[in-house]
Target: Corrinoid adenosyltransferase
Amino acid sequence: MVVLSKIYTRTGDAGTTALGDGSRVPKTSPRVEAYGTVDEANATIGLARLHAAGDMDARLAAIQNDLFDLGADLCRPNMDKDGEAEYPPLRMVSGQVERLEAEIDAMNDALEPLRSFVLPGGSALSAHLHLCRTVTRRAERLCVDLAGEEDVNEAAVKYLNRLSDWFFVASRIANDDGRSDVLWVPGANR
Model:
């Protein structure tokens, strides 16, 4: 259970922040950049949800919750010491990745195959989902970069990779099942 009775602590005034294991790192560390960008992706989903309803809104809400799980995973380094922790760290699991894959497959079944690249746009929801996709791709790149230097849960990276694909397919669903997609016309303005 999280209890936040005081929002500011002044402990970060010198440019450091605490990780989930209590260690302090610069706020510009690759780990903080990675989970900070996951948080940014989550905020973009909040904007997208202003235009979503029904099943799409419920799926986006589930993803927002997953991204908090992912942030908790990323802020807890030293995976090899998980068994020594007073409280078991929250880690992403393959089931979360598999759920995204199943949702992607189900959404994609409603779509005609693409004959061109899609430009971000169309409906308001689709445009916001494209923003979610690009921020998620950045979060993934940062996690891959971090994994080159430190331990990162493999399921966390896989989740971000599938999530950006999820946003792409969902953006097409939000464009009248792809019928209102804005297609790229190569060289159209030469």
Observations:
- The mean pLDDT is 93.
- The first strand starts at residue 16 and ends at 18.
